[in-house]
Structures are given as C-alpha cells and as structure tokens.
Task: inverse folding
C-alpha cells in the first residue's frame, strides 16, 4: 500500500458564512480522503477580505508554516481557489506542497478516468488550469525588476512551456472531437431506434451507481468515495409494462466544481441533455441534502438540461433520522419518491414511478386527416398508442398518446399536422 500523504486543510472566508465554510471544509476532507491523503488538521481563518498575496494573511500563513513543520505535513490544501501570486508566496513560506480544491478534484479525476474520452477530458482540464498559472508566473518575473537575470532562460523556458501546453491543448481538443463524433454516431442510431433514455444525475456519493446496479442487476463500481464514477455507463432496464429503457449513470456533481471540468465534461454530459427523463438522486440522509440539490440544479441549468422532466429520488431513507418532514413533502408533490436502494420493494415502486413519469410526459391529443394518407395511418399505429379512432366521410381522426422520443419516428409532415414540432 502506498503511504498516505499527510495533509493540512485550510479555509478562509467571512465569519458571516461560517456554516458554509465549515461544511465545504468537511467535504474537502472527504475529497482528501478519496485522494488517499491523511487529514492531520483543519484550519479556518475568518476574514472579510481575502489577502491578495497570502489569501489567509501573512500572519496566518506563518502559523500554517509552523504547523506544517510541527506535524510533518507533506501537503496543504486550500478550500478556495488560489491565484498564481498566492501560490508563489505560500510555497516560498511553507515547506510542503500547496494546492487548492480545484487541483485536488482534478487529481482525483485523473486517477479515476477509465475510458479514453474520460482521460482526454481530465487532461484537457488540467492543462487549462495550468496555463494561466504559468502566464501568471511569467508576469511575476518581469515585474520583479525585469532586466538582467529575470528575462533570460527562465522566461524563455516559460514561454516554451506555454507554447507546448497550448499545442497539447489543441491536440487534446482534436482527439476529443474524434471520440465525440464516434459517440454521437452511436447516439444517433439510438435515437433512430427511439430507445427511451433515462439518466441518473445527482451529487457525488448520492447512490447513483448503486441504483443502476440494483435496478439492472449490473456491477459497476459503487463505493463510499467521492467521484467513484467518471465515465457514463448505460444498461438496459425493463419496466413492468414491457417497455425497455436505457438507464445511464453519470459523474456526480459537487459544489464549486472546477469550471474547467464542467467545460471538458460537457460532451459526456451531453447524454444528460439527450435524456427523456432524469432521475435526480439525492442522499436524503445527508444533513445538507437541500444545498446539494441546489448545486445539482445549477449544474443542470448550466448544461442546458433544466427543462427535461425530472423525478427526484430521495435515496438512503434507511439512514434517515427525520423521516416525517420529507415524507410530507413527498405527498404534496408528485415528482418525488423516497427509497432505499437496498430495499427490493422500493426498487419496484421506483420502477413504477419511472413508468408513470415517462407516461405523464408523453404527447396526447387528436389529429384528423384524409383516409388516403396511408403512410401516416400506419406510422401512427406503429409508434403511438391509439386510444380512439373514427372515420367520417373521407376523414379519419385519432385520439392518440405518443411517447416523446417516438416523435421523430413519425413523418415530418405528420408531426407538423399534429403541431408537435415545437413542443
Ligand atoms: N444506507 C444506504 N447506503 C446507500 C444507499 N444507496 C447507496 N448507498 C451507499 O452510498 C455510497 C455511494 O454510492 P454510489 O452508488 O457509489 O454513489 P454515486 O452517486 O454513484 O457516487 P459518485 O459516483 O461518486 O458520484 C456507497 O457506499 C453505497 O453503498 C442506500 O439506499 N442506503
Ligand atoms: Mg457513481
């Protein structure tokens, strides 16, 4: 077993936001653990304004340096993003590696990516994170005196490093585009076959992979770690009405998700935007479940997926303390369900609820046209459920129910006739 790095965690912010700072720091400890670090100490510095040079202020930075020495720490992790000049100052003072939350998350992702696309995406995010930091260092150098000794090989090296990184970024983007085209081809085929797609989304560690496993009897990795899943996995799920849907597991979200990551994962997360239904899985036993839900909603918004019908799945109710409050809210609204992923009867209820949600979001209506439109009639019989039909003179009219994802299986002119195209 590899020796765990010894880490000190630091957070800094206004006393007004103490609660938020503490819970974010708690989460940082979880991230550190996921990255195999041993957390020795957590330090919070309250100040209303961040120090530009030291973030936490020089005095506090000196205290941290002392703490590093006393505890023999290898690593100091800041919960707030560090700007280049802060990294530089802190590294000069502290005899340990200095990183921030974003770097830690990128590092975890790098260790976890399994597929080619996942690896490319993480690498791209890492380089994009590095690039401005190199620029920063260069500026720092030229400001410090300029002239002899500062511009020489050091600056040249940075310049070549930057060029090299830019080139790498271009190559990665190009490779990603290739992988992406390939995947879109698959997706287009899926769409053509009009397979209903249901995607699991939610905060990291909510139980998405566990649910995928339980519902489809598969064995994807699920564990009590943050970001256990990076690459989307799809499995077939049979509903009790005989309908077959494709259930997709996705990467978990977290507050202050590095935006470089959201950007590079956009293409894998496109599967989320293509879904017919989202299952937003929430760890109902987590003290901050409602904040976590908000974060997920924000990321969905950012991805352009906020409009997709969503079923909120409150998971881990077996671990919940205050059950009654949540149950009440469940009764008030129809788009939520409380379950434990380990309870067979709950899984059955969930499947029924998925069926219901898919059904609920189908198109319903009536349409009439000439009986001579043979291709329209057969398309309707093939793809829609005909609730009622009537022929009068040479007009035939249908009362129908059409699954949302079957829309494009109908001839375009029929879609227009049914006035469903822009719904
Ligand atoms: N008690 C209890 N634990 C659960 C339940 N569902 C999942 N878990 C546990 O929660 C932990 C996280 O589960 P995962 O399925 O890996 O969570 P995830 O949402 O896929 O997490 P990421 O992939 O990290 O985003 C695991 O240890 C599961 O065993 C549940 O209903 N009850
Ligand atoms: Mg997972």
Result:
């Amino acid at each position: 077993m590899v020796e765990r790095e010894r880490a000190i965690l630091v957070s800094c912010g206004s006393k007004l936001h103490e609660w938020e700072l503490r819970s974010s720091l708690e989460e940082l400890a979880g991230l550190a653990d996921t990255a195999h670090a041993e957390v020795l100490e957590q330090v919070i510095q309250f100040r209303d304004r961040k120090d530009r040079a030291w973030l936490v202020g020089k005095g506090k930075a000196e205290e941290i340096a002392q703490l590093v020495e006393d505890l023999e720490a290898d690593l100091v992790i800041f919960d707030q993003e560090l700007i280049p000049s802060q990294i530089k100052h802190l590294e000069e003072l502290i005899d340990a590696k200095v990183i921030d939350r974003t770097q830690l998350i990128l590092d975890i992702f790098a260790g976890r990516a399994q597929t080619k696309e996942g690896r490319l995406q993480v690498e791209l995010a890492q380089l994009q994170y590095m690039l401005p930091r190199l620029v920063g260092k260069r500026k720092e150098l030229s400001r410090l005196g300029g002239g002899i000794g500062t511009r020489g090989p050091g600056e040249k090296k940075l310049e070549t490093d930057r060029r090299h990184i830019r080139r790498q970024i271009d190559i990665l983007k190009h490779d990603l585009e290739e992988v992406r085209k390939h995947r879109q081809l698959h997706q287009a085929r899926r769409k053509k076959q009009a397979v209903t797609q249901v995607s699991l989304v939610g905060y990291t560690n909510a139980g998405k992979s566990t649910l995928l496993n339980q519902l489809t009897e598969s064995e994807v990795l699920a564990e009590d770690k943050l970001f256990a899943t990076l690459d989307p996995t799809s499995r077939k799920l049979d509903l009790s009405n005989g309908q077959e849907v494709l259930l997709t597991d996705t990467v978990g979200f977290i507050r202050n998700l590095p935006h470089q990551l959201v950007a590079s994962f956009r293409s894998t997360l496109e599967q989320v935007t293509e879904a017919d239904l989202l299952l937003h899985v929430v760890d109902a036993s987590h003290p901050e479940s409602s904040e976590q839900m908000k974060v997920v909603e924000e990321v969905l918004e950012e991805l352009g997926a906020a409009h997709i019908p969503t079923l909120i799945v409150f998971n881990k109710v077996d671990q919940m303390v205050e059950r009654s409050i949540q149950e009440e809210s469940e009764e008030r609204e129809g788009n939520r369900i409380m379950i434990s992923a380990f309870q067979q009867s709950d899984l059955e209820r969930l499947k029924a609820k998925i069926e219901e949600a898919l059904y609920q979001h189908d198109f319903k209506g009536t349409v009439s046209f000439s009986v001579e439109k043979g291709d329209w009639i057969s398309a309707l019989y093939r793809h829609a459920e005909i609730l009622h039909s009537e022929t009068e003179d040479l007009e035939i009219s249908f009362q129908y129910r059409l699954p949302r994802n079957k829309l494009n299986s109908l001839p375009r002119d029929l879609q227009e006739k049914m006035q469903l195209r822009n719904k």
